[in-house]
Specification:
The N and C termini lie far apart (78 Å). The protein has a three-stranded parallel β-sheet, with helices on both faces. It has a two-stranded antiparallel sheet with strand order 4-5. The chain is built from seven helices and five strands, in the order ααααβαβαβββα. Strand 4 and strand 5 form a beta hairpin. The longest helix has 28 residues. Helix 2 runs antiparallel to helix 3 and helix 6 runs parallel beside helix 7. The chain is extended and about 65 Å long. The chain folds into two domains: 100 residues, no CATH class; 108 residues, Rossmann fold (3-Layer(aba) Sandwich). With 225 residues, the protein is mainly α.
Length: 225
């Protein structure tokens, strides 16, 4: 009985140990991915707890250069992918159709006149806006206003298009006066929805038409003034 009862415990301990070693190895080999994961946690205790693991693991990995092989492999794959893309695309583009090599910005952001970025969308935008805030908020010439919302969508029953969505976009643009709007929407566009009593089937022709119409209307609000 004693030997039989110990066997499942030993197996569980081995599995737990393997999981811990895998987590430790992944953290040391890919500290940048670990940082992104930690920064994507909800603000508060969850992100604080994640950083308790991510910060020392990342510092150790970078001091020992354990992340170098993976970064070099990623650079190599990016280079190969770029060469393949260029060889496939460039011959099909007419010289006169290519974009100019440089683009002149309409103005240069400063601490007195920072570039104002409005980030809107669904729960996927929450992860993106956390990363944007982490990378850009320390700069004095950039301001990020993240307004992603859980469960948001253009055809989600919980959100009234006229009273909730467009009213909120009008208010945000008036309040923030964004120079750039970053949008990520689509994760929740799968629910049954009705417009003026007409049931829309996700993926159907009328459902797509409504999405296009509302996307155009939203863009008009983001570009207001």
């Amino acid at each position: 009985m004693t030997e039989t009862s110990r066997t499942p415990r030993r197996r569980a301990a081995r599995i737990l140990g393997l999981l811990v070693l895998t987590l430790l190895g992944a953290s040391l080999l890919a500290p940048d991915a670990l940082d992104s994961w930690a920064d994507g946690r909800d603000p508060g205790w969850e992100r604080t707890l994640a950083r308790v693991w991510a910060d020392p693991a990342g510092d150790l990995a970078r001091r020992l250069a354990l992340d170098v092989p993976l970064r070099e492999l990623a650079d190599l794959l990016d280079g190969v992918g770029s060469e393949v893309a260029r060889s496939a695309v460039v011959p099909a583009v007419r010289p006169e159709a290519r974009a100019p090599p440089t683009t002149v910005a309409p103005w240069a952001a400063t601490s007195e006149r920072p570039l104002r970025i409005l980030a809107v969308g669904d729960s996927l935008m929450l992860d993106l806006q956390y990363g944007m805030e982490r990378e850009l908020d320390p700069r004095m010439d950039v301001v990020v206003e993240g307004r992603g919302a859980l469960g948001f969508g253009f055809t989600v029953p919980h959100w009234d298009w006229e009273d909730d969505v467009l009213t909120d976009y009008y208010r945000l643009v008036a309040e923030i006066s964004p120079d750039v709007v970053v949008v990520m929407i689509g994760a929740n566009e799968f629910e049954e929805y009705a417009v003026n009593g007409e049931d829309l089937t996700p993926g159907g022709r009328r459902w797509r038409e409504v999405l296009f119409e509302r996307a155009d209307e939203a863009i008009d609000h983001w570009k207001a003034d």
